[in-house]
């Protein structure tokens, strides 16, 4: 009984700090402290500058040695591709209307690992845990953006100018601040370049506020009214994202020998909510933005419980 309570306490302590900030952001929106327009601008600033700096620091501070461990990112890559393929098969058979297939797959596979995931890993294992997940972070930032484009090649709305839209989106992906941050960090390590002392302090300050500010923005951007639309596909996609794929992937990870923080990272990756970028990209690609927005809201709510449950079960079986 005592061990069970300790495991539950561990799981809650890993998840609570992250979702407390999300909840605080939502309360700020509901009480009028911030509004939609302000939140949208703040989210953009946070994504473009603060979060990019955080990723740059996470990679550059751990060095390229962390990127040489390909086992964890390699597993995540193969698992994500497998989930992506299964989602397409499922969507082709069960998702209606057919125009929503691409959006369903998009919200079904994409996880908020950059914000929610890294925040929980910091709660569990501190900066040392984040350092072990640098290769995983690099992989998912690039892979998610590439796969997202192909969601709307096969399942988006029919239009003569779709390929022009896709080419434009690919260019936007190449200019994605997070991908540029990864490239800059790797390049600086290869060249042996370090931030001069004059810049180090302000850059670190930006990095330190990135995750808390992002979590507040996630909470403030949640619109419960979105849940009223597309309820069937919304519930299905949110359950797939936060529960069903973890049931498939996590046991395979255990069988492959993953333990400790690496196994926790895999569990968090496949139980975390959709990022708000799902809505932004779906809207820009002409998909069902209402479904994407509703899935972000519901998956965020569900992931409070699914991430906690996943970490609790892994703790009970002494796998963490």
What is the strand content? under 5%
If you average the pLDDT, what whole number results? 87
Give the overall shape.
globular
* Number of E-type strands: 0
Q: SSE string, helix = H, strand = E?
A: HHHHHHHHHHHHH
Put simply, the count of helices is 13
CA gyration radius, whole angstroms: 19 Å
List low-pLDDT spans: 155-160
Distance between the termini: 18 Å
Major pleated sheet: none
Estimate percent helicity. over 70%
Structural class: mainly alpha
Explain what this protein looks like in three dimensions:
The protein is mainly alpha-helical and 320 residues long. It is globular and about 55 Å long. It is built from 13 helices and no strands.
Layout of helices and strands, plus pairs?
Elements: H1 2-30, H2 36-62, H3 71-94, H4 101-109, H5 113-132, H6 134-154, H7 162-174, H8 177-191, H9 197-221, H10 231-255, H11 260-269, H12 277-284, H13 289-316
What is this structure, in a nutshell?
With 320 residues, this protein is an all-alpha fold.
List keywords for this structure.
globular, mainly alpha, 79% helix, 320 residues
